[in-house]
Request: fold
Amino acid sequence: MSKADDYFLSTLFTDDKGVNSSEIICRANFNPCNNKYNHFIDARQPGVGKTSNTLNFINSNTRGKHLVIAPTHEFLEEIAKKIKKEFVVLKGFSRACRKYDDDTKEGEIIREMNEKKIPNKVICRYMKCKGACYYRNQFSKANKRNVSIGMPVQFLHLYDFSVFDSIHIEERVQGGFKLEWNTKEIYKELLKLTEYIDNERQKQIMEYIKNKDLENLQSEAALLSDVIQRSNAEKVTMYTKDHKEVVKPDNNFLNKICKLNVNNLLLYLELESRDKENKLKTPYNSISVSYQKFLFYKQLKYNIQLNYNCATFPKITFLHNLKVFEELFPQYTGVVEIKRSHYINKNVKIIKMGNSGHYKSYLDIQLAIHEPKIKKLIRNEKYNKKKKICILTYKRLIKDGKFLGLDAFWFGASHGINKYRKYDVLIVIGTHLPNLDAYKDYFLEHHPGEDIPNFEDFIKSDGKMIPKDERLKAFYKEKFEDDVYDSIHRLRPLWENNRKNITIYWFGNNVPEKLKEEFDYEEMDF
Reply:
């Protein structure tokens, strides 16, 4: 047993062949009798069957209700095709509303109401779409007992974990949201409910808001949510009753709609009260919540194992977030298991072409120099060798999924997607790097109070451009180098049914060390 740091302890188990390993991590003072959570992380290499295992589990447990969280709708649709039971991929309002993008009066009204943050239920009621509304119908179907759900992490607030029999998280959990508290604005929203709640109760609720009284506000939450729904519904009915067709709503009507989200108020107060108990922050009026932290919070409310499938699982960031959350909620304690694999395929060859980094800052100049040679390489592979080729590069170079006439995708895109596995050749152009602000943001969040590094001090040799400071280097490797690693694996070079000869021409620096271990590697003058 070895220390992961002063807070966590880690135990590593490896099989006899050294191919598969399992790491168990828990709080240093962990008591198994008080286990409150389990995180099972399948961080084996891409293409070895992580998602297939999830699909097999769901398909063999058809009577359960399962949740799959993934980074993109494209990935979720790919999963949905392979699930044998009813499976609903939830879409947000702008994506699911059939009229949202229409170049019509109705489409214009919907977009304007949405931009003014009118609640989705109010927009649907106002537009009178009835049974033709895909946005509402998807929830009616998803809420049935044995129907499983796929959704992006941004939809986490919609469901308590208590309704699911298993939860599966595909790829990294990234991003977050902000909760804000403005007592005056909350009062204004509450005053819109005057006709629907008695005066004394309204005054009492406003007193709870003023005092940030979480316990008493929780006791009023169900009533308050019900009143908001009823108030908004009746206002829509009154405004539209004399209109035979949908008309553009005036500002007077829109200003009467209550936009208060009671659950967000409660979450804000709970997180703020925990921060105060731990003396983490001085008074403030906003809280940033990462989706990973929100996952912990959801699991705290209803303990169910969370199953992650992520070959580039960000262990350092995850454990940092876990430690912070456990300090906020000491009752949240348990075990993390990370499973890894170490397969190789020397039929895949990486050829690093020259020493140019093709960095963003002077990419146009370098492309002008090297593009003729790159096109000659493409012609040779495509027409002489009859190879299928795609390109991995910067997002800004790609137009309609193409660059230099070939299918292309950008660094960090398409996590988990299998559609690139048909290609024989990949051409990488560029070096995927964070900007200096990203390094600074990471350091301030993860290493407060420590000695400040030189953020502009880099190792610039042997085909590398990486920070000298070990803390910044760890951040770069976990976030940006692993993004590149995962992008390369969209061709599925380790996939059991796809172990053919693949060639990767690399025009850039910072070839991930993990790729050099897995595949054949050589350098060539260019």
